[in-house]
């Protein structure tokens, strides 16, 4: 068939049929992914046997108009014969040898697509810094090479510092550097900064997550903190940290928040002027005669500070300098109430501290937040306005449709209460080894175009539903609210608590195969509107009748914090969380089981929390081990599949179900 006739035939197809044809072409034309280096990232390489004269660049251009960028082949090889095994399948080893011979038309050195302009070059540098490896090709898919929602926010913030404007959720829409570069332009580095020459102070509305907090934490609302211990601070000057503390308070309105309980029992948020806030404390531990005694004294002081916190005073952020004399390096501990901070905020704050310390040899110019985005007051007002929007009301049917019959969720003991205290909690920690974690991050998501969180949740649902003989689980999820899909506000570089809590009923059928289970979980997670933000806005801010939403009470909550790297190896300022004594022991817990996951230095860490009022330690051990076993099975299954499988969410505009999609793909 001549090339013009082929093009005419394709043009006669509908938009969706053409899109499906291009996807299926990877199988028909024997596109295969080959690793030439065990430590390298997988890339799509096309091997084509055809009688049609092809222009490779035109073909790539044609594919880019019809395929997501992560499905574009890195290189295209036209070959005379496709080597086959006796069973008719493609002989990948012979393909590998063919590519490495001088007869190959194109070598794999071309797999890395180099940046073609200044914006692409800058984005490559940022991706390599945030993701922690190189080289990165401009057609690498962010989520397939280890990216996640929290890292995406860091990408946006770093780009902003380099003068490149990206929307907060842009990496979800344009997942490669090639795509990003087409939807952004270089701007003045200060053009995106929010101009606030007059310091903001006064009342602001509570956000949904703050409403949730005061609704569910009544025993000791003042004592629910996050604490970090700075690493590699490389300075002995307490004066530097006193100045840093003042600068942070001035830069970030959230760190000046106070909360007052009104006569009717409702809470009110108030931003205090920076001159009314004392956030710096200093202690000399010279009287302690050993490192262990100094560390014990630090824990005592940190606990006492937390116990004496007063929400109405506004001292919810404390930077504490401990002079340890010659026994050990000086310690810097920072305490912040969770009402004013989240994980992304810590990254912003520590980066400012690092930048300031790094200027010590340059006449000590304090780092100011030139790249600050919208204020927390802007955010609170935006959510208040969003609460009466038509787009939010359209979400109500989705949330009302979530199933809520969790009566059959198993426990070892019975309890008449649905509220449990911190002093009843015990934890089980489990780790996925480095090799398996790398497979999870870099390889396993290619088969179904999933994210790490999808596969973690798939393993969790299989674990809990098999154990409890359940057909579905109402799971509580936490998500970053900064990734909101709007151009009306950007809080990617703003300090505060930007978390959305919401429930979702995830189905499970133990008779189905792993592939069907993974696809089902992926599709259910993709249906969540507005990244889950709308649930809290409807429940706490909207005037609409949301009684059904208040009945949705998950017994299990899951959170994936993404990928983090401590900076110990490169000797940069970093931080570690202090886990002990961050919450009052009488503080309430509203879930029977809580699972927190994070990848740190190429290992997946999974922390399960159970209440001893309901569960035995033996049960906790069984569940944690079964979860890792299921996760390994999912990873192995995904990386051993020969073909990429598509699901309806890969075609968001097609309005097609999985059966019809499979039938259409089968026609090509």
UniProtKB/TrEMBL annotation:
<dbReference type="GO" id="GO:0003824">
    <property type="term" value="F:catalytic activity"/>
</dbReference>
<dbReference type="InterPro" id="IPR045851">
    <property type="entry name" value="AMP-bd_C_sf"/>
</dbReference>
<dbReference type="InterPro" id="IPR001242">
    <property type="entry name" value="Condensation_dom"/>
</dbReference>
<dbReference type="InterPro" id="IPR010060">
    <property type="entry name" value="NRPS_synth"/>
</dbReference>
<feature type="domain" description="Carrier">
    <location>
        <begin position="114"/>
        <end position="188"/>
    </location>
</feature>
<dbReference type="InterPro" id="IPR036736">
    <property type="entry name" value="ACP-like_sf"/>
</dbReference>
<dbReference type="InterPro" id="IPR009081">
    <property type="entry name" value="PP-bd_ACP"/>
</dbReference>
<keyword id="KW-0597">Phosphoprotein</keyword>
<keyword id="KW-0596">Phosphopantetheine</keyword>
<protein>
    <submittedName>
        <fullName>Non-ribosomal peptide synthase domain TIGR01720</fullName>
    </submittedName>
</protein>
<dbReference type="Pfam" id="PF00550">
    <property type="entry name" value="PP-binding"/>
</dbReference>
<dbReference type="Pfam" id="PF00668">
    <property type="entry name" value="Condensation"/>
</dbReference>
<dbReference type="InterPro" id="IPR023213">
    <property type="entry name" value="CAT-like_dom_sf"/>
</dbReference>
<dbReference type="InterPro" id="IPR006162">
    <property type="entry name" value="Ppantetheine_attach_site"/>
</dbReference>
